[in-house]
Each structure stands twice: as structure tokens, then as C-alpha cells.
Structure prediction request, 95 residues.
Amino acid sequence: MKEQIEGVDHPRTYFDHRQHRKGLKMEIKIDPEFRDLIPSPTAEELANLEESLKADGCRDALMCWDDTLIDGHKRYEICTRLEIPFKHVNRTFGT
Prediction:
């Protein structure tokens, strides 16, 4: 689904992870360089995140750049492991 966001001159593409089970393929790539830029959460923060995702689902879309995950690595790990549906936003940036 494409959606024009007010104040943004290009559409963002949203992908609902549940569509993957319906046969629509969308690979999210993990780049260790992006992943390692963000400090790891503490064990307590990670446990709180997992509990929140179990209770409320993944409310915030993961951010991708040309199908490479740039924000939401821990949410992605937890959601895929626990099969919690999530959405991601695929952004493109100018050069």
C-alpha cells in the first residue's frame, strides 16, 4: 500500500508482515553496520520490549531503506521469533 504523507514529496510504502503468510514475498535485509550503530538495550529493556510486543503488538512500523532494516532491529527479532505481526515502512532517500 502506498500512502502520500503530508509534507513529504514521495510516498512511503507500508508492508504488513501478515501478507508474507499469504504468499506475498518481502525480504527484510539486515545490515550489521546499521544494526551495530544503535546501542544494545539492557536485559531489562529487552524484556520490557518483549512484554510490550506480546501485550500490545508491534504498534510502530519498522523503518527500511530499500528493503534494508535501519530502525527496529530488536522489534524485528522479537516479532519474527514470536510470530507477532508487524508493518514496515520502506523509504527511499535522495542522493
